[in-house]
Design brief:
85 residues; mainly alpha; 11% strand; elongated
């Protein structure tokens, strides 16, 4: 995986959810972390994340690189939309 060209890794990342990319792949090695930092097709779905994962994703993803965003406030997740914005 590490030896693949960055463009191919980005194509693979297109089929992996943001939570897995940032909470697992991001932690793997320095090279994958750098490739993720240049990835610009993020699809974020915050409906099913716990508060700590939500906060971490908000810190790690550049809003300019987000292509799709799903936010939802429920009884237990009140205020997340305002927090994200």
């Amino acid at each position: 995986l590490i030896s693949l060209p960055e463009e191919l890794l980005h194509l693979i990342f297109d089929h992996v959810d943001a939570q897995t990319l940032l909470l697992s792949v991001h932690q793997t090695c320095h090279r994958l972390r750098n490739v993720l930092s240049r990835y610009d097709r993020w699809r974020l779905d915050f409906r099913y994340l716990c508060k700590s994962d939500f906060d971490r994703l908000c810190r790690l993803v550049d809003p300019e690189k987000v292509n799709s965003l799903v936010l939802a406030d429920g009884k237990k997740k009140s205020g997340r939309i305002a927090s994200f914005l």
